C-alpha cells in the first residue's frame, strides 16, 4: 500500500492494477538484484537491474503477440482479406510488434506500453467482433492498468449501451440481462483493483490526475496547446521588442520543467477549459456512434475520440500518440484514405518521440528505426492498395522532416546552444502542424 503514500516520492501515477503488476515483478527481481526492491529517495541503478527491466518489457509483450493473433483472425473474417493473409500479418506486425513508437518508448526509453496496447487491441477487436462482455472486461482491466485510456472510455460506454438498449433497432428490445452481466464484470474488475486501496482513494486521485503539473509536459506534446504556447511566446517577444510591455527573462513556458506556468499575453488555460473543449469536440463523435452503432463506426469513433483527447487534453504526454495509432491501424483495412492518413500520422507521431532519446549515441538508432519500419509499412500498404500514393502536401511535409531534423539536432545545439529548449520547441511546433492536418482528415472521414 506504500505505492500511494505521499511520503514515498518514487511511486508512480498509475492505477492499482499496475501496482499489482509491479508487485508480481518483485518476486522475480531478487533473482537479478535484491537491492532494487529497497525503497530509496535517490535513484538506484546497476546493470543487473537494467537487464531485469529490459527483459520484463520483452516478456510482457506476449500480451501484444496474443492480441495481434486475435486481430489477424478478425481482419481475415471481414471478407476482402481472406486471400491476403500475408499482407494482414505483415501490416499488423509493423503496426504493433515492430511498431517504431513502441521500440523507441518501451525498449530504449523504457516503459510498458506494449502490453497495454495489447489489452487495448484485444478490447477493440472483441467489441467490434460482437464479444461485448469480453471486450468490456479487457477494457476495464486496461483502465486499471493505465488511466490514459479514459480518452476512449465514452466510446465504449455509448456503443455498449446502444447495442444493449436497441436490439435489432427496436427501442423496446432492451437486453437487460446483457447489461447486468456487463455491469457486474466491470464492477468485479474495479473492485479487485481498488478494493485493497479504499483508504487511499484521495491520494490515488491526486496521483492519477496531478493538475498541478500544468497545461503541458516538460516537452510539449505536438497538439493545439503547443501552438498556443508558441503564439504566447512569440507575441511576448514582439511586444517586448516594441517596448509595449516590460522586458522579462526567460519565458516560463520555456523552462523545460513540469510545472504550472503563466502566460504573458494569452489567457491562462485551466483543466476545466481543456475538459470543456474536449467534451464539446467529443459530442458529434458520440452522437454519430449512437445513431450508427456498427463495428466500423465504433473503431472510427475510438480513433476520433483518442485523437481529440490528444489534441485538446490537459497535460498530454507526447507518448499518448500511441493511443491514437492503435485503433487507427485497424481502419487501414477499410479503405485507402484511412491507410494513407494512418501512414502519415505514424511517421510524424514516431518522429515526435525523437526528443525522448537525447543521447548522442541514440541519434542514428532512432533514425534507422523510423526509416526501416515505415519503409516496410509503405511496401506492405502498396501490396494491399497497389495505387496508393501520398498527397503533395503530405510529401512536402515528410520531406521537411529531414530539414527540421538537421536544424533541431545539429544546427541549433551548435550555434544556439544557450537556448536549450529551442530544439524541443521546434519539434513540438513542426509536428503539431502535421497533427492538425491529420486530425481534420480523421474528423472528415468520421
Percent range for β-strand residues:
under 5%
Would you tell me the overall average pLDDT?
88
Percentage of helical residues? 55-70%
Report the major sheet. Answer: none
The H-and-E topology, N to C, reads as HHHHHHHHHHHHHHHHHH
Compute the number of helices: 18
Report the count of strand segments: 0
Q: How is the topology of this model organized?
A:
Layout: H1 16-28, H2 47-60, H3 62-76, H4 85-97, H5 100-105, H6 113-128, H7 132-143, H8 153-165, H9 176-194, H10 201-208, H11 224-241, H12 271-291, H13 295-312, H14 321-331, H15 336-351, H16 363-384, H17 392-415, H18 422-444
Explain this structure to me?
- By secondary structure, this protein is an all-alpha fold.
- 63% of the residues lie in helices and 0% in strands.
- It has 18 helices and no strands.
- α3 (62-76) runs parallel beside α6 (113-128) and α14 (321-331) runs antiparallel to α15 (336-351).
- The radius of gyration is 23 Å and the shape is globular.
- The two termini are 44 Å apart.
- The model has no long low-confidence stretch (mean pLDDT 88).
Provide a compact summary of the structure.
The protein is an all-alpha fold and 446 residues long.
Descriptive key words:
single chain, 446 residues, mainly alpha, 63% helix, 0% strand, globular
Amino acid at each position: 500500500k506504500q505505492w500511494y503514500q505521499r511520503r514515498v516520492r518514487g511511486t508512480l501515477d498509475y492505477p492499482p492494477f499496475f501496482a499489482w503488476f509491479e508487485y508480481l515483478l518483485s518476486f522475480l527481481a531478487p533473482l537479478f538484484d535484491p537491492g532494487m526492491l529497497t525503497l530509496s529517495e535517490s535513484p538506484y541503478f546497476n546493470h543487473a537491474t537494467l537487464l531485469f527491466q529490459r527483459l520484463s518489457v520483452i516478456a510482457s509483450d506476449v500480451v501484444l503477440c496474443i492480441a495481434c493473433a486475435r486481430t489477424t483472425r478478425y481482419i481475415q473474417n471481414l471478407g476482402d482479406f481472406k486471400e491476403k493473409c500475408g499482407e494482414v500479418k505483415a501490416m499488423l506486425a509493423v503496426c504493433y510488434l515492430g511498431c517504431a513508437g513502441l521500440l523507441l518508448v518501451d525498449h530504449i526509453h523504457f516503459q510498458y506500453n506494449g502490453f497495454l496496447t495489447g489489452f487495448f487491441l484485444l478490447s477493440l477487436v472483441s467489441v467490434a467482433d460482437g464479444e461485448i462482455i469480453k471486450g468490456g472486461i479487457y477494457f476495464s482491466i486496461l483502465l486499471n492498468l493505465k488511466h490514459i485510456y479514459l480518452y476512449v472510455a465514452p466510446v465504449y460506454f455509448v456503443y455498449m449501451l446502444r447495442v444493449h438498449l436497441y436490439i435489432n433497432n427496436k427501442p423496446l428490445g432492451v437486453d437487460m440481462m446483457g447489461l447486468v452481466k456487463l455491469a457486474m464484470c466491470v464492477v468485479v474488475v474495479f473492485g479487485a483493483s481498488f478494493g485493497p486501496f479504499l483508504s487511499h482513494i484521495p491520494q490515488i486521485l491526486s496521483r492519477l490526475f496531478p493538475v498541478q503539473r500544468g497545461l503541458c509536459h516538460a516537452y510539449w506534446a505536438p497538439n493545439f496547446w503547443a501552438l498556443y504556447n508558441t503564439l504566447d511566446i512569440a507575441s511576448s517577444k514582439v511586444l517586448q521588442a516594441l517596448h509595449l510591455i516590460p522586458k522579462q527573462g526567460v519565458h516560463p513556458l520555456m523552462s523545460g520543467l513540469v510545472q504550472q506556468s503563466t502566460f504573458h499575453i494569452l489567457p491562462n488555460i485551466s483543466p476545466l477549459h481543456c475538459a470543456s473543449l474536449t467534451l464539446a469536440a467529443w459530442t458529434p463523435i458520440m452522437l454519430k456512434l449512437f445513431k450508427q452503432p456498427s463495428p466500423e463506426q465504433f473503431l472510427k469513433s475510438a480513433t476520433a475520440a483518442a485523437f481529440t483527447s490528444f489534441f485538446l487534453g490537459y497535460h498530454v504526454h507526447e507518448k499518448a500518440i500511441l493511443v491514437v495509432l492503435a485503433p487507427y491501424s485497424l481502419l487501414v483495412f477499410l479503405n485507402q484514405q484511412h491507410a494513407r492518413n494512418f501512414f502519415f500520422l505514424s511517421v510524424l507521431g514516431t518522429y515526435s518521440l525523437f526528443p525522448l532519446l537525447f543521447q548522442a549515441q541514440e541519434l542514428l538508432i532512432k533514425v534507422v528505426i523510423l526509416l526501416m519500419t515505415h519503409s516496410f509499412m509503405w511496401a506492405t500498404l502498396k501490396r494491399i492498395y497497389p495505387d496508393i500514393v501520398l498527397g503533395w502536401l503530405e510529401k512536402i511535409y515528410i520531406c521537411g522532416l529531414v530539414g527540421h531534423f538537421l536544424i533541431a539536432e545539429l544546427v541549433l545545439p551548435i550555434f544556439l546552444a544557450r537556448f536549450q529548449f529551442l530544439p524541443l520547441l521546434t519539434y513540438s511546433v513542426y509536428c503539431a502542424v502535421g497533427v492538425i492536418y491529420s486530425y481534420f482528415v480523421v474528423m472528415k472521414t468520421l
